[in-house]
Specification:
The protein is α/β, with parallel strands linked by helices. It is built from 24 helices and 35 strands. The strands form seven sheets. A seven-stranded parallel sheet has the order 3-4-2-15-16-1-17, sandwiched between helices. The chain has a seven-stranded parallel sheet with strand order 31-32-30-33-34-29-35, with helices on both faces.
Amino acid sequence: MATFAPSSLTLRALFKRAVERAGMRVRTPRVSGLTPSAKALFVAQAASRDRVLLVVPTDSDVERLTGDARFFLTALEGLSETDVARAVLPFPSHEVDPYRGLAPHMDIASARARVLHALTADTARIVIASAAGLLPRVSAPQHVQSTSLSLVPGQDISPIDLGDLLASAGYTRQDPVDESGEFCVRGGVVDFYPAGAKGPVRLEFVGDTIESIRTYDPATQRSILPLDQAAIVPLQDLLSEGDDTDRSATVFDYFWSHGKPSVLVSEPDEVAEHGEKLHAQVLASYEEATSKGNTVPDPSTLVIAWQEARAWLEGATALETLSLEDGSDTTHIASQPAQEFAGRIPDWVADIRRARERGETVLFIADSHGRAERTVELLADYEVFAVPVDRAEDSRTASVFVAQGHLSKGFRLPDAALQLWAETDVFEEERKATHERRRSAARTFLSDFRDLKLGDLVVHVDHGIGMFVGLKRIEVGQEVQEFMELRYYGEDKLFVPVERLDLVQKYTGGATPALDRLGGTTWEKAKTRVKKAMRDMAEELLKLYAARKAVPGHAFSPDSHWTQEFDDSFEWELTVDQQNAVNDIRGDMESPTPMDRLLCGDVGYGKTEVAMRAAFKAVMDGKQVAVLAPTTVLASQHFKTLKSRFAAFPVRIDMVSRFRSKAEQKQTLEDLAAGKVEILVGTHRLLSKDVQYRDLGLLIVDEEQRFGVAHKERIKQLRKRVDVLTMTATPIPRTLNMSLAGIRDMSIIETPPRDRLSIQTNVVRFDSAVIARAIRTEMERGGQI
């Protein structure tokens, strides 16, 4: 069986040859021409001779280059996943201002502490640090060593003493252990979640001797991998010493503790800019704090100036993508970023053939085993012979080598005759982030009140339909407050405080109604009529659900090998709850009774992946799928996710929304009716009468609480034989009651995916500077706000 292993002999020889031919072993003060991913290859080969410190501008650079360097070091030296995770370590910044009363995220503090421990133990091969990560002062190395301990099978230490040591290192007693920084002692078993690790570790004792060490899944308590060692690392890079906080050291004291490492600086000008920016920000925060009369520590006790950091980096090798300088002190290594194809396989195949005509070796890096296998089959359809990297006997006839690993971007090394593509280059959906499209997306987030114009109709919960006159400032007591002014029948006026705008919403009923009278009975009568209509609709719904149970629907076929390939192409391992939900849904779909299942799970817990597997099953049976989302932005997000996930399979996915022109929507609906579109994504537009399916088999509704009942039930009335999957993070009482009563089935995803960052909450006084800094930090790391 092909392994696609990134540590195969073939891949190792390929990269070593590329390093030699590209001239990467030549060492000069400046190296230019390297793309970001090619820099990771340069760093990995440098680590074969010496320990390496790579300094990069931002924390997002740290994350990306850490993953890339791990891939290349694994390929060059054949390391296991565990060994490479110990050898290549990220060193991010705290991401918080020391004068704002915010604590760094536990995962960040743990990652930094893990690096300091690895440096004292001399086990780190490559450390990738951001400019801002170098400046904070830290505890002296001897204090980190005193609270650290390496553990191996056969070692003598009592479980109770081990628990005490974990507590002194900052770990918290918690049973079960499922978050970083927790531990528990249960007789002859000790569980703890090491700093910077991807999962918890379990030690089993015989008496006071460690018998075994292994990682385990906290959700199932099942073992994953045996370990030959584990380390207790302090959870903070700043430890307390007596009554005073020990900040006597810098991170450079650790980096240089076993001799000066090989120092590389990626884009030195950008690194200096970010380092100076952080130091200036700390000084400004200090001045602000002291101006308010607060007693705070001097900046020099918290951080070092960038000039001091620059002195430590003296003599480092500069890695620059573009360099204006040339000469004897500069080595130029020609590299080019890989072309992106966004799922256009014929274009990629054409580029593969051009690379082969140039005599280049072509390598494709897939994120998962399933995607690697699927790519081999996909290229075979175009008569391109692709083989796993471990099949050296086919090297002469192969057009493409396929390996498995995580690489952010591919690149080309002309001098080494190597063309490398990452999965994101070939299958990732094209980014259409034009200025106008960003503006359109932003507009969808604006509330109805931002769109209100003078004369618009609004509905007050207690007083009914009125006309919006404007905002008015009225003096109440000793202060001026702002009110929404509404006009009712007979020139009556109502002033609603802005803090009670939850009682008011914009009227969207269509025909223009008469204004209600303040204190009148028309509004109460209207609400009574609506309540009666809701009761009638509830009765109708019960009849509908009874009919759905009685009327046979489409019984989908059992899973095929394509289904297995689709599942395997998912780069992460499903949680137990996700797998149970997938099994429940597939069982429902294979039953002749139409499915009506509610899928509950918090944001980020993997509901979309479960739904996409249901969609794939429907499409494989020749059925069409409709994905209904409450907002245009969410519909666009689902569209992009589906396009990326289905990129390697012959499935056409399209969307109807305000982001598409009328002509585009018209063509899409024509293709939908003809059966040329298998999956259609959209908002309420999917409910229009002109949307006709050739053979609809599955309806997926996201966040149903944001739709009107009539909207959702309209499709169900028209398609009594259609399977329905509803996803929500917050089910409304009606839906939850129907599920609990057995009218609808329900699956719940309660466990978060592995490696999902836990949410960190800081409660502080309102401070606009804190908010601004938090927003800037999140934007710099590429996150969402």
